[in-house]
User: Which sequence fits this backbone?
């Protein structure tokens, strides 16, 4: 059952709406939902002051779907710590979307600001627009970034994506900014567009598949040969089964992959970067 | 207070993060006549302390009493939803502590100038810790000192002559026994003062540092050159660093504000940590404003976080990039700014300044600056370390007591007292 939230007008001062989660909504009437707390600056306000609330609420988290409409760029922390249920956002949305998420599903038709999916440990996020900096990153001072879950971005992503990533899966159809997968220590990433500079710096473990152009890699990564690689096909097939639109052209099973390992600045150097040799022969020497 | 008539010895200079504490100040009546030992900037700061002074509180450009100015400031703060305090790096510790109290009381955000200078240093330290040294330790022990992306000749004039090119307990001849290197993207004036200048290509600091780390581990890499330096030279640099008895790396804005920012610092910290597996190394930021280091310390003591702190929920939260003044202003979030001992209008990017023009600004500073032209409320303050006492923290973390050497201008009080007055009347309004 679906609860529909329509933003009445763009707030002049950003609001923090971490109360918008299926868990908080389940088992409440629309009137009770309207009284959930959101913060605007130092003032604690009610959800209904900012949103028109219609639809039908459900008893359980699993049955709860929240649809949010409007220009939500000044609304932060939607779906923070979300544990089950569904959120669908029709428009652009502010920082920390789905941060610390545990389970459930978030879809966004527009773009998201920084720290979307930060430190998430499960669930699924699909973003049709772009994502800002620190997508699926760890917060300042945390040793672990993303710890699980799957994230699909149809647009481009900013800098320092997947900082400190430990587990999980990220696929990006567009380009990725600088210093992606910094200090990564597990999990896997597919980038279909161009991979920005300094990827995987200080990363110790994990896999990154670059299907597009890679202009440079850190000097502390070493080339470890080019060949057909059976298991890359497994990741490509998985992506194709979920989001066929992410792959612009077919990648043949006989595709040659140039492999790089690093980061040799670290004591452990088991990060693997696979790039398509046809597009990136300049890296392999 | 007066030592030997109107001569004050061992005065701490409150201009840059060196906080030289050997300045001799002579005064005559209400004038400072002489500064001995200080560098040119220090002389200007002391002898010229009355230049360009703001002497009268104003509201919307008209002169008012101090009480009236405070009253208006309190009105503005009380009616705000998202109150921002910024600055604090050119004032002393007690004023900083009052600023945190005010932020907590008003449920606002408090940020210091770290966010536009050495913020990356702190983010780096939060990732990887700190391997630090003191300036005295450096002078006594270091047989190699490296400056990276810093230009002390211009920004910290006495850093080399007063702390580094000085004999110490174990370094008898600072010219022979101590090597000073500079790594930078251009040949600055500091390059002429050091024993070796290593030029690297712009925006390659991170690559160079990571390469050094790999080489120190003894790894052979594929590359033949990084950042414009051949791998042979890098190997030699790595070996020198590894075989030093005691090294210190000083870094400046060339490292913190170039491509990579906090990643550069994180890498530099880890380079120093790696070196400590073989020998002893320390790392120190060349902090610019005299007490920006203190702003981070006092903030961490009081709130648990060094800058970019939000009290909107009653407890402190930390999120640089979100609660940093420059980012908040550029996104149009705060509805009031209280600026203290900084000049955001002069230093912030255009989008942030354009937004500043739209909201009420309260400005507390001893001098006229670009922010005072825009501020609705201007309140003059006494200069700490000259007209009132206080405490400040040197770039290596050493707290020093600041002396008062002369009376402030008539009716002008220290900024900590101004903040206390604001807090006192705001408490009445907000309860
Ligand atoms: S180096 Fe800095 S602290 Fe020392 S006298 Fe010069 S300005 Fe003052």
Assistant:
């Amino acid at each position: 059952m679906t609860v529909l939230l329509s933003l009445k007008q763009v707030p002049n001062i950003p609001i923090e709406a971490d109360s918008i989660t299926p868990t908080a909504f389940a088992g409440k009437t629309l009137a009770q939902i309207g009284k959930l707390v959101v913060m605007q600056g130092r003032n604690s306000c009610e959800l209904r002051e900012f949103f028109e609330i219609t639809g039908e609420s459900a008893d359980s988290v699993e049955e709860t779907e929240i649809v949010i409409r409007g220009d939500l760029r000044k609304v932060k922390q939607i779906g923070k710590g979300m544990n089950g249920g569904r959120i669908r956002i029709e428009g652009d949305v502010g920082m920390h979307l789905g941060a610390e998420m545990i389970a459930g599903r978030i879809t966004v038709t527009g773009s998201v600001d920084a720290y979307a999916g930060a430190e998430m440990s499960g669930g699924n996020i699909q973003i049709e627009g772009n994502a800002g900096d620190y997508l699926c990153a760890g917060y300042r001072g945390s040793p672990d970034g993303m710890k699980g879950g799957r994230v699909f971005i149809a647009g481009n992503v900013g800098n320092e994506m997947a900082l400190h990533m430990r587990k999980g899966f990220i696929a990006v159809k567009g380009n990725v900014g600088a210093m992606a997968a910094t200090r990564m220590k597990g999990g896997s990433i597919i980038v279909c567009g161009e991979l920005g500079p300094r990827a995987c710096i200080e990363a110790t473990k994990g896999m990154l598949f670059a299907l597009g152009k890679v202009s440079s890699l850190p000097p502390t990564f070493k080339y470890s040969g080019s060949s057909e690689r059976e298991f890359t096909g497994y990741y490509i097939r998985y992506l194709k089964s979920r989001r066929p639109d992410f792959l612009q052209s077919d990648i043949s099973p006989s595709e040659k992959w140039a492999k790089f390992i690093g980061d040799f600045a670290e004591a452990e150097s088991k990060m693997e970067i696979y790039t398509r040799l046809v597009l990136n022969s300049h890296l392999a020497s | 207070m007066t030592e030997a008539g109107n001569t004050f010895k061992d005065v701490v200079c409150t201009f840059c993060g060196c906080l030289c504490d050997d300045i001799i100040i002579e005064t005559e009546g209400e004038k400072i006549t002489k500064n001995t030992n200080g560098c040119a900037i220090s002389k200007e700061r002391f002898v010229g302390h009355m230049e360009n002074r703001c002497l009268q509180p104003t509201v919307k450009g008209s002169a008012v009493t101090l009480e009236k100015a405070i009253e208006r400031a309190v009105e503005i703060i009380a009616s705000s939803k998202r109150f921002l305090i910024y600055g604090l790096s050119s004032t002393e510790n007690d004023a900083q502590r009052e600023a945190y109290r005010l932020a907590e009381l008003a449920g606002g955000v408090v940020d210091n100038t770290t966010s536009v200078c050495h913020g990356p240093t702190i983010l780096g330290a939060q990732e990887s810790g700190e391997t630090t040294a003191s300036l005295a330790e450096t002078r006594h022990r270091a047989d190699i000192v490296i400056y990276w992306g810093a230009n002390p000749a211009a920004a910290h004039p006495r850093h080399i002559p007063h702390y580094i090119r000085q004999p110490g307990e174990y370094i008898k001849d600072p010219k022979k026994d101590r090597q000073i290197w500079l790594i930078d993207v251009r040949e600055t004036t500091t390059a002429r003062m050091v024993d070796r200048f290593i030029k690297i290509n712009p925006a390659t600091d991170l690559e160079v540092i990571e390469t050094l780390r790999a080489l120190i581990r003894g790894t052979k890499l594929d590359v033949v050159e990084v950042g414009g330096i051949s791998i042979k030279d890098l190997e030699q640099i790595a070996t020198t660093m590894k075989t030093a008895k005691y090294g210190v790396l000083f870094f400046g804005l060339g490292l913190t504000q170039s491509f990579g920012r906090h990643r550069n610092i994180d890498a530099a910290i880890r380079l120093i940590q790696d070196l400590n597996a073989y020998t002893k190394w320390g790392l120190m930021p060349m902090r610019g404003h005299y007490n920006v280091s203190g702003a981070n310390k006092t903030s961490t003591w009081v709130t648990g976080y060094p800058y970019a702190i939000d009290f909107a929920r009653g407890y402190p939260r930390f999120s640089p990039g979100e609660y940093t003044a420059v980012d908040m202003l550029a996104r149009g979030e705060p509805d009031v700014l209280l600026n203290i001992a900084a000049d955001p209008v002069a230093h912030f990017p255009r989008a942030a300044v354009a937004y500043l023009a739209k909201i009420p600004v309260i400005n507390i500073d001893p001098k006229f600056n670009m922010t005072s032209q825009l501020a609705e409320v201007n309140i003059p303050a006494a200069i700490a370390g000259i007209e009132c006492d206080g405490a400040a923290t040197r770039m290596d973390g050493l707290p020093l007591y600041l002396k008062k050497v002369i009376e402030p201008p008539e009716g002008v009080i220290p900024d900590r007292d101004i903040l206390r007055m604001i807090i006192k009347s705001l408490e009445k309004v907000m309860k």
